[in-house]
Structures are given as structure tokens and as C-alpha cells.
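hey can u check if this looks right to u? its 262 residues, i copy pasted from the old doc so theres a chance i mangled smth
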Amino acid sequence: MNGLEHSAEGPPLLTLDAPGRATITLNRPRHLNRLHREDLLVLHAHMAQLATDTSLRVVVLTGRGRAFCAGFNLQELGQADATGSDAKLFERTVDALEALPVPTIARLNGGVFGGATDLALACDFRIGVVGMELRMPAARLGLHYYPSGLQRFVTRLGLATAKRLFLLAQTVPDQELLRIGYLDALAGADELDTTVQAWAQPLLDGAPLALRGMKQSLNDLARGDAEAHTLRERESLCAQSADLKEGLAAFEQRRPARFSGH
């Protein structure tokens, strides 16, 4: 993908694939893209950069090799970094991904294990490859998962499904992931990129202010911390925008809209 197949292993890579689209690629295929502390710090830096890019319309998260991600490197579990914040580093990384203002798509090129199940769930959409599977082994390891991750599973998949994934630690195959709503779409390996692009294109074509505002509002509502005045402010911002005027004009003229994000 993008000529990365033979590049050296290391921290996640950030590429700008096309106008308005960026891709973050997990880059340790020999170890199923497990995430080390340095990887999480690099992911934070990538997301900080993307969060301020007003030209951005969509971010794709994927991995190299035969797995999407094997989760956090358990050999580093419990090791404190210089700031003493390591215990929450993974949680903060996933929360930062969810907080990106632009829509995100997880391109799941293979299996999703451990903390990677939440990393993908923090994206707005998940496109899986045929043959992939998921497993959340926290209970088998003696881990109580972090609160924001548990909340994401409950609000996005429902309590019964969250209990099944966390308490039973079952390995869940691709079709079942589609049925329970973890996956939005499933594609063969040869069709994965085409399918991801089919989901990315409407986001590239949409009005940026409306997409960003509604993503934030929907996530706030799902968490139960939405404030009515904040939702109204986002609504008002779009109502007064040049994008709305352009969208209405394009509809009347039966042509594609040319949104500016203002």
C-alpha cells in the first residue's frame, strides 16, 4: 500500500495520499503491528498534526502485513515512562484518535487483538478484510480495561456485545463482526482499498463544517455529555456558512458542490 510494503519497520507512518486524505500506517508487521510506547507517542504527534490541518477531510488508519494490530506490547506493561504517565498512555492515544475533528476510517487489513479492538472502534467507520478475526483477552490476562474504552464498546455495540467480547474473551470471526456492528463493511483482500475509497469519497465530497460538527455532536450524545447550547452553536455555525450557500446553489444547479470549509 503506497509503496510501504518493503519499507523498514518502526513507528507509525503518516502519508498524505490525496488532497484532503491522510493515512496512518502501523509499521511493525513482523510483530503483528503491536504498539510500543514510542509508537503511541508518534501516534500522538501525528494526530496533533492532523487535528490542526483545516484542509483535511478524512483520515484512514491501517497496518502493514497480515494483521491490523496486536494491541499494546505487553512486555512494556506497567513500565513507567519519564513522566509517570505510561499507565494511561494507550487510553489517551485512543481517546485522541476518537477526538480527531475529521471523520476516520479503520482499514482492517487483518486480525484485531487486545487494545487494537478499541483503537479501531475509536474510528468512525471500520472496513474489514475477509478472514480477519478479533479477540479481547483482558480477562484472561487479569486486566480491567480502562473506562473510556469500556464506554466506547457499550455505547457503540451495546452492553450484551461488550460483555461477550470482554468477559468471554471469544475469538470472533469476520461475518460475526459484521453482524454485531463492529464492522461496517467486509471486503476481499483485492477489494479492500476499493471499498475503503468508496466509504472515503462521500467524506471527501461532503461539507467539512457539517461533517466535523455532526461527528462531534454525535460522539457527545453517545457519551451522554452533550450540552444543548454547544450543539446549537455547531448548528448555527453551519447555518451561517459559505458551505451551506454553496451546497444549496449546487443542489439547485444540479452540479457537484465545491465546499471550502467556511
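The chain has eleven helices and ten strands.
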